[in-house]
Protein: O-antigen ligase-related domain-containing protein
Amino acid sequence: MKAKLIISNIAFIVALFFMIGGGIYSIPGFILIAAYLILLTFFFTKYVKRSFLNKHSALLYLFLFYVLLTSGFDINTCISLFTTFLACILLPVKQEIIGNNAKYVKIEKLFFFITIGIMMYYCYKSLLLLNENPMALRLLISEEKDDTIVVGGGYALPYSMSLLCPFLLYGSQRIGEKLYKCAIYIVIAAGTLLVLRSLYTTALMIIFFGYLLVAMKKISAKNRALVLLFGVIVLFSFIQLLPHIANYFLNQDSNVVGRRLTEINNIINSTSGGDDDGDFTSRIKLTMSSIMTFLDNPIFGVGPSVHYDYFEMEKIGIGSHAQWFDIFAIYGIFALLLVSFLINAAKKISNNNYSLILFIILGFLNPVFSFTIVFTAFYIAPLLNFLWPANKHYDE
Structure:
């Protein structure tokens, strides 16, 4: 069992290199990742119980068949599907091995931090780019279309780390391992540094929701919905009123605060596509665009061949900023097959309701579907079992 768990983690890390390394868009790169994933599929199918081939998994197989049938075997679409399939086929392995047995948590922690280390390397490269030009990451996407740094550090790390920060911080108060606790704080510091330096609006929102959910553990169940609604209103109200608050301070004798708020507002607008007057409706417009595109093409969607090409997606009305809505706009009603599989897989692998809530929230906020949502399902959902123990023996 221990060997299977280690192999499943190593396989995911290898796939991580395929995803954020160079050459995945080339024919040789595609052949390599396809061969790797096919061999891995046969290896794990041999060891996984027959329950893996159940009605639940049939949702994923039907979805893969539909997309490949309608996409004309587009290379980028195939890479996205193979990557998703890798994580999905390994989830039952981890579920079977971990179960309610806490003795494997050390292995999970080890590979979790190995993966974070890989991402931090790209985070460092992202920071170097940001020091040269605050919009360098955007330029990499729009001009060079080089996702190596962008996916590895520019987007995936701040999103994942800002999501993990409050929960790892909460968990470290329960787990007394000094080395693990120090590693957590280092990861939090590195992730927060990139978030504050780049000020991605998505990352900021995830941080807000994360700490809100942590706070809600001490709030009665009947008041949690009201607290969450209040938090959402406060967050968007602050962003909407930010330019007016900055102008107020700029009119005072001391305008240091006003200048700083203006800088934050400008960065928010530039990274979210907002208007110069501070209007933050752009992200909502992008989300609504995907919803309307789905309503116009509810059965088959606009087709998966545009996946991975941001500009093509933008032309046909896909906002690329709310993946649950985006994949419905792309795949139509057939997206239910994939969404149902992913949500059920995240639910089954963790007995903690908060991991499922985070998984769903991330799907509404995050534009990097093929990496970060899979990362969440693969690592965050199982890990939360041990950070928020459901049974007493987890604390041992």
